[in-house]
Design a protein that fits this description.
nine-stranded mixed sheet; six-stranded parallel sheet; alpha/beta; 342 residues
Length: 342
């Protein structure tokens, strides 16, 4: 087997994990690592002395032996780097979000189609086993009609300087919700607060309105004392919680709900005649296999290259998530006014 040669551009906080997963012969090897910071390159060189190191990506794009480029740089640089890689005939994996605007993302999709190259965005939680198990529960109808989902994604840092907390963190949850509900929101309303860097919200509270009257509430913040990755999904038949910080038992299913009983009468004068009964049932903890979602994501990217097929988190999904983020940003700029998703 001839390994697929990959170049990783950007080895800051997340890039080293991508290097580790792609430097995995005989299926793939990292031929080059690019970063503008010499100290970061030096760390990679100590760990992988066989990888070529470079301060810029120009040589990588012109190297015909490199088949794929992975972009793990700040969001503001994604578009130009991904575009240059596609124009040089490389398959491209870009960390989320795909670009700074949906228009840029759509241009990248056109570039990939014209070059017949794979374009994939790193929506990592699509490869999370817990997220996949929730999808199975929803698709099987075990929760019944979905009422709403509440998603919390907080931590103390890392604080970005080119995008706000919604673009950095909510991109994950939007991707998850679109996956679970097989659709994208009709509208978004949001408010945010900026305390660290002027003009960049450090915390955002957003509500997305999906078809079938499903509401999704998002709370994202990089200015929070507790790291949280909590999701609650409420249906008329059952409810569930997904705690991604709980590695052993992340998923819980609750046989709980509200049963409304009404005594249809011309004259109602007792509490018992019109009341809501709470149904308290069992709590189940389905088994969720341990695994590394990033490994699955990288393997999927290689699968798509080898089999000439579209990834499950392809350019089109990247565009869809960006359009929701743009609606959130418009709403926050208009004091929470509900904004349509283009």
């Amino acid at each position: 087997m001839t390994p697929i040669k990959v170049a990783v551009v950007g080895v800051g906080e997340w890039g080293p994990n991508l290097v580790r997963n792609f430097h995995n012969p005989p299926r793939s090897v990292v031929a080059s690592v690019v970063d503008a910071q010499p100290a970061r390159l030096e760390l990679v060189g100590h760990r992988f002395p066989d990888i070529h190191l470079a301060p810029d990506a120009t040589a990588v794009f012109s190297d015909e032996s490199v088949e794929a480029v992975v972009v793990a740089t700040p969001t503001s640089t994604h578009f130009e780097l991904a575009k240059a890689a596609l124009q040089s005939g490389k398959h491209v994996l870009v960390e989320k979000p795909l670009a700074l605007t949906s228009e840029q993302a759509e241009e990248l999709c056109r570039q990939a189609d014209a070059a017949d190259r794979v374009l994939m965005v790193g929506h990592l939680f699509r490869f999370n086993h817990g997220v996949q198990r929730v999808k199975e529960q929803i698709s099987a109808g075990n929760l019944g009609r979905i009422f709403y989902a509440a998603m919390v994604r907080t931590n103390l840092g890392p604080i970005r300087r080119d995008v706000n907390a919604a673009w950095d963190l909510a991109a994950h949850d939007i991707s998850i919700a679109n996956y679970w509900f097989d659709d994208q929101p009709l509208s978004a309303s949001a408010v945010g607060g900026s305390w660290i860097n002027a003009g960049l919200d450090d915390a955002v509270f957003a509500t997305l309105r999906y078809p079938e009257d499903i509401l999704v509430n998002l709370h994202v913040s990089w200015l929070n004392p507790r790291k949280a990755r909590d999701i609650t999904v409420v249906g008329d038949r059952a409810m569930l919680t997904l705690d991604d910080m709980n590695l052993l038992e992340p998923l819980r299913l609750y046989d709980k709900g509200v049963v409304e009983e009404r005594d249809i009468s011309e004259y109602i004068d007792t509490f018992a005649s019109f009341r809501s009964n709470v149904r308290e049932g069992d709590i189940r903890i389905p088994r969720v296999e341990l695994g590394e979602p990033l490994r699955d994501e990288c393997d999927h990217f290689l699968d798509c290259i080898e089999q000439s097929r579209q990834p499950v988190t392809g350019g089109a999904e990247g565009v869809a998530v960006l359009k929701v983020l743009e609606a959130i940003q418009r709403s926050a700029g208009n004091h929470g006014r509900e904004e349509p998703v283009a």
